Amino acid sequence: MTISDVQRRIAAEFLGTMILVAAVVGSGIMATLLTDDVGVQLLMNMLATVMVLGLLIWTLGPISGAHFNPAVTGVALVRHEIRPAEGAAYIPAQVLGAIVGAILANVMFDLPAIETSTHQRGGTGVLLGEVVATAGLLWIIGALTRTGNGRLGPVLVPAWIGAAYFFTSSTSFANPAVTIGRVFTDTFAGIAPSSVLPFIAAQLLGAAIGAAQTELFHPRVGVTPEPLDLPGPIHDHLTNDPTQPQQGEHP
Questions:
Q1: Nearest-10 Cα torsion for 223, 77, 93, 246
Q2: CA angle 217, 76, 121 (to 5 degrees)
Q3: 157 phi and psi angles, rounded to 5 deg
Q4: How far is CA 204 from CA 21, 36, 60, 241, in A?
C-alpha cells in the first residue's frame, strides 16, 4: 500500500504530537516519583520536553513542517501557506495525537489509561502567561521561516519553550492540542477540563500577536515560506496560488 505525501504529512503531525505529549506527561509522572521538590520536578519536565521537541522538529520538520500545534497550523492557514483541506486534517490529527500521547504516558506508568485531570489552572496572570508564551513561539517560528533559518528550528523553538517554562506563570503550554491532551491525565502535567477553554483562548490571542509581530519585523518580500527544517519548503507552491494541487495530489 502506498500513501500520498499529504497522508504522510498528516501522519507525521499525529505522531509528533503524540510523542511530544507522551514526553510532557511521562516526564512529569517520573519527576513526581523521583522527588518531592516541585522546582526539581518542573526542571525535569522541562528538560525532557525541550529535548524531545528538538528531536521531533529535526526528524519530522522536513516531512510536515513540524507544526504539532493547531495555533501554528491556524496561522499557516490564514497566510495561505497550507491548503485549507490539509490544514483541516492537520488539526484533528494533532488533537488526537495529543490525547493518545497522554494515554500512552499513563499506561507506561501503570496508571488508568484515561484519568480526567483535577488540576485547576487559571487566573489573569496565568492566562497572560499563556498569551506571552504562545506569542513568542509564533514570532520565533515566523522569524525563522521568513529569514530562511528554518534549520535552526530544532534549537531555537525548544529554547523558547524551555525558557518560558520558568518565566511565564502558566509554564508555557502554548499549544491547544497539547492542552486538550493533558486533560486526560490526573498527574503533574494535567489540566482540568474547566481550565481548557480559557487557556485555548489565551493561546489563540497569543498566536495572533505573534503572527502580527512576524509581519511587523519580518515582512515577506517574495520569499517562499519554509518548514522549520531545511532543505526546502513543504508547501512551497501555496504562497500565491492555494488552488494548485500539492505534492502527492492530482488535479
A1: -60
A2: 90
A3: -65, -50
A4: 19, 34, 24, 26
- From the list 227, 71, 34, 60, the residue with the least C-alpha distance to 161 is 71
Which segments of the chain does DSSP mark as H helices, in order?
5-34, 38-64, 70-78, 84-108, 124-146, 153-167, 176-181, 193-217
pLDDT digits (tens, 9 = 90+) for 84-115: 999 999 999 999 999 999 999 999 999 999 99
Written out in words, the top-level CATH class of the domain with range 5-238 is mainly alpha
Residue with cell 515566523: 142
Q: Return the half-sphere exposure (C-beta side, CA atoms, 13 A cut-off) of residue 66.
A: 29
- How many CA atoms, within 13 angstroms, populate the side-chain half-sphere of residue 117? 25
Name the grid cell of 70.
493547531
Q: Which of 144, 147, 148, 124 is nearest to 136 (CA)?
A: 144
**Length of the chain in residues, anyone?**
251
* pTM (2 d.p.): 0.89
